[in-house]
Amino acid sequence: MLEQLKAIVGDANVLTAADMAKYSHDWMNTESWTPLAVVRPASTEEVSAVVKLASANKTAVVPVSGNTGLCVGTSAEGAVMISLERMNKIREIRPEARIAVVEAGVVLSNLREAVDDHSLIFPLTFGAQGSAMIGGNLSTNAGGSNVLRYGNTRDLCLGLEVVLPNGEIMNIMSELHKDNSGYNLKHLFIGAEGTLGIITGAVLKLFPKPRAYATAMVAVKSLPAALDLLAKLQAATGGSVEAFEYMPRGFIDTHLKVVKGARAPFEEHYDVNILVEVGASSDALAPDGRPAVSVTLEGTLAALLECGDVLDAVIAQNEVQRREMWARREAAAEICMPFMPMVSADIAVPTDKMEAVLDMIDGEIRKIDPDPFVIIVAHLGDGNAHYAVKTANMTAERKDEVTEIIEDCVLKFGGSFSAEHGIGTYKLPSMARRKNKTALAAMRAIKQALDPQNIMNPGKVIPEERGSI
Amino acid sequence: MLEQLKAIVGDANVLTAADMAKYSHDWMNTESWTPLAVVRPASTEEVSAVVKLASANKTAVVPVSGNTGLCVGTSAEGAVMISLERMNKIREIRPEARIAVVEAGVVLSNLREAVDDHSLIFPLTFGAQGSAMIGGNLSTNAGGSNVLRYGNTRDLCLGLEVVLPNGEIMNIMSELHKDNSGYNLKHLFIGAEGTLGIITGAVLKLFPKPRAYATAMVAVKSLPAALDLLAKLQAATGGSVEAFEYMPRGFIDTHLKVVKGARAPFEEHYDVNILVEVGASSDALAPDGRPAVSVTLEGTLAALLECGDVLDAVIAQNEVQRREMWARREAAAEICMPFMPMVSADIAVPTDKMEAVLDMIDGEIRKIDPDPFVIIVAHLGDGNAHYAVKTANMTAERKDEVTEIIEDCVLKFGGSFSAEHGIGTYKLPSMARRKNKTALAAMRAIKQALDPQNIMNPGKVIPEERGSI
């Protein structure tokens, strides 16, 4: 089979043995595996040919792009890994139509830079954007810090090109904003983590680059007061809040301890710290000549300072200050590292239930350890919290116990055990015990229908049925 | 089976014979059929029981709500029709979370009125909203005039309750803005036109009611000039344009002829007439105390009048004038009626290709009839045109010929033969000859997997394979 793979992609692009090292473990280095080979096709046709060969040989294929996923979605023991890294062309940027046509291996930050030249943005943004690639962003429906305004990755995609498990190329590269011609396959393949096919290309939406940003760190009385601040800012700016990120006292303290040169956002320490950023989508200026959005942010904060809901606020006066605020937020993964192993939960609840669910989780975890170490950071505007916790004795059993506690609490509020990171293999147990059984059965039926040989990224997303192997 | 149905929903809610009259034809009265019975369940559990019974008897079931579809999606010869009309409860409106939880039989305009009391809107709006119901809106992924700002129906839905072809109830009634726990089934069932299951309930997104509207009729030099106006308005208002509706000269002329008391939008007659509406999502006021949005609209139009791109403009000074503008636009279906039969196409192209595709269609149709009668109205901001045309000799063959001409032109620009109306049975031939074959095969596999007996609204959306029955 190796020879046949070489015939398709060329000798240099079939990696084996030590050359596979960087493909043989996940981003967080929690698991490792040995693929049969790693192939690096240069075109959709080559991907198709590789998948057809694998299908004929009933051999598993595992697609990989930036490999920055947090749920071990690319484990590939004995499988042919298909790395999309050479499919890194931005095929087209059409500023007037506000679209970019890209291959799956384009690095997210490269796309962001390329469209910046046209005064446009591709809004998706998160810590790993210098490594993460569009194919993986789509396959995991990546979230990040701008979802509040622009939506998840699926909301940023108009069309797809996918190689199906039988090797056929499905071209649904639509540029259309309306298309009701049958089942919406685009949304099915987005977020399927490569288990239904390999995304090789996409038509992505671009947006006008905000004319100005107003960015601030704000200390607020409570989480409900923070949500009230968000609502007031949305009303005052016409829904232009781009980010609304919650960092509790523990996050700030840990950041100060772990990151060299880190500075506190305020002189005093507060419980509820919010990074807020508003993007001005209009050219409107205030009478004093500043962007209207800055004046609006200041005015809203000033009124809430007066009534006591806002306790303190610092507005970034320049790009350096803005960058420092963002660097603190984006250090979330980094500041967890020294405390590993932790249980890392990625939970979603209705936005107005965040305080209640965090309180409940805290109370329940203290029943097994009265002094847990916790790092929380939340996309508060989306109802999405990253909850990392370390208790005494972090054995596998203890981790399971803590995970179940968190899930119990989240489900009581109608929440999800996976907000933006996906399932991979890491959250298969949660999927098995928490996902609606009828929905799970429907997913199994769809997987079986599109991939009857179960060769396409097998063992991810959908847990094996109890009773089956 | 009738007795068993009565046992589930009660005698009064199993209709037969003449009582089925209003369920036995489509909205446009182009087709009629005789169901086995029409049942009117009052709850999701009753829907489930009816589907289980039908499944055991291998009898087709056809869901129907407002029955205002334009593609004959509810034909039900010999089938059990399940009317959702009694499931008309708004279960919950939660203003602070901006959601409504509704049953499938809620009439769209009733929901719009109910949330208005909370200064919120459910943005979906189109001519038939006084009859159309949420279940049908979701099943057809209805579009309408506000898609430009708020998206299609699928963008307005957070969660669903669905009765599957085996009668099981799938509860994915999420209120979450982020949920990456497996395949996105919500988007698969939305737009499936009841062929994969029956939507019985939904969690819908609500939006703040605009503080003010600025509405105008604008005569523009050309379609590219109209798109430039749209871009300038979006930049000036931060993307607050709610509607941007194109009515060419022929539409205005026909409207004047057909509708009693109709008035022309301008003293002169122009080729390119646009209804534009901007919603103020902020409280901003201009120095003279008027809503800033009105001043912005006036200013943008004034600048374009000066440079000659805009030829004329009338801004609504009050709600009566605004209503008159909308009434003209919403008379589109009415003014086609006297000219039936026509070929009614619902096409989408990339927004910047609208002029080219309309020109091409016009040229091609004139080759078979040098003087066709055409009524066009377009959601220009979405790239979606409703193109109704009557040529000499409107035989079935001629209609097919004209349809194929339109499809040929649309596909040359990467467009779709169904933008917002769906497929039903009316567009099965287009689906068979125009849809990507690999995508069609994937849809067939999914349908077969979820509905192996093919009892759920059979014969819609997915054309039979050539060679099969």
Walkthrough of the structure:
The structure is a homodimer of 469-residue chains. Chain A has 469 residues and is of the alpha+beta class. The first copy, chain A, has 4 domains: 82 residues, Uridine Diphospho-n-acetylenolpyruvylglucosamine Reductase, domain 2 (2-Layer Sandwich); 119 residues, Uridine Diphospho-n-acetylenolpyruvylglucosamine Reductase, domain 3, CATH 3.30.465; 121 residues, Alpha-Beta Plaits (2-Layer Sandwich); 83 residues, Alpha-Beta Plaits. Helix content of chain A is 33%, strand content 21%. Chain A contains 15 helices and 18 strands. Chain A has a 7-stranded antiparallel sheet, sandwiched between helices. In chain A, helix 1 runs antiparallel to helix 2, helix 7 packs antiparallel against helix 9 and helix 12 packs antiparallel against helix 13. Chain A starts with a helix and ends in a 19-residue tail after the last helix. At the A-B interface, strand 9, helix 6, helix 7, helix 14 and helix 15 of A face strand 9, helix 6, helix 7, helix 14 and helix 15 of B. Chains A, B: Belongs to the FAD-binding oxidoreductase/transferase type 4 family. Chains A, B: One of its GO terms (biological process) is respiratory electron transport chain. Chains A, B: This is FAD/FMN-containing dehydrogenase. Chains A, B: It comes from Lentibacter algarum. Chains A, B: One of its GO terms (molecular function) is FAD binding.
